[in-house]
TrEMBL record:
This is NAD(P)H-dependent oxidoreductase subunit E. Belongs to the complex I 24 kDa subunit family. It comes from the Bacteria. [2Fe-2S] cluster binds at C87, C92, C128, C132. It comes from Anaerosalibacter massiliensis. GO terms for molecular function: 2 iron, 2 sulfur cluster binding; metal ion binding; oxidoreductase activity.
Length: 161
C-alpha cells in the first residue's frame, strides 16, 4: 500500500515540525526528539519527512531510516482511525489469540503492521496488554474485548465500520 504524504494538507503541522527541528538542531540526541515530534504530529514518519530531517539536521537519510525502522514506536505508514491490537502474549496465545488475529486479517484484507486503503483500520500484534484474565484479548483504540472466539471478530469490527 502506497500512502503519499500530502504537504498541503499538513501545512500547519509541517510549520510546527520545522520549529521543532530548529529548536533541537544544536542539541545532543536531536534526532530522537525530532522523530518523536514527527510521529506525534503526522502519526507516522514518511520518507518525505525523513528527507526533510536529513536536510535540516545534516544527518544521512540512511541513518534516519535505520533509527525509524529499529524502534517499534515509529511507523513508516499511517495508522488507521481504528487501531486494532491483538494480544499475542502467553495467556492470550494459549487461549487462541492467533486465530483471532487471523480472522481480523481475513476480514480487513490486511496483515499485521498494515493499514487499510481508506485509512480506517490498522492492525498490530501486541504483547501482554495486562488483561490476562480476559484472554484472548483484542483492543480497538481504547475499547477492550475479551474472552473472544474467531466468531466474535466480525461483529466487533462492524461496530467501527
Amino acid at each position: 500500500m502506497n500512502f503519499e504524504f500530502d504537504w498541503d494538507a499538513n501545512k500547519e503541522k509541517v510549520k510546527k515540525f520545522k520549529i521543532c527541528i530548529k529548536e533541537n538542531e544544536e542539541k545532543k540526541g536531536a534526532l530522537m526528539n525530532v522523530l518523536h515530534k514527527a510521529q506525534d504530529l503526522f502519526g507516522y514518519i514518511p520518507i518525505e519527512v525523513q528527507k526533510l530531517i536529513s536536510k535540516e539536521l545534516k544527518i544521512p537519510l540512511s541513518e534516519i531510516y535505520g533509527v525509524v525502522t529499529f524502534y517499534s514506536q515509529f511507523s513508516l505508514i499511517p495508522k488507521g482511525k481504528y487501531e486494532i491490537g491483538v494480544c499475542l502474549g502467553t495467556a492470550c496465545y494459549v487461549k487462541g489469540s492467533q486465530d483471532i488475529l487471523n480472522k481480523v486479517e481475513e476480514i480487513l484484507g490486511i496483515g499485521v503492521g498494515e493499514t487499510t486503503a481508506d485509512r480506517k483500520f490498522s492492525i498490530d500484534a501486541t504483547r501482554c496488554l495486562g488483561a490476562c484474565g480476559l484472554a484472548p484479548v483484542l483492543v480497538v483504540n481504547e475499547d477492550v474485548y475479551g474472552k473472544l472466539s474467531p466468531n466474535d471478530v466480525e461483529g466487533i469490527l462492524n461496530k467501527y465500520k
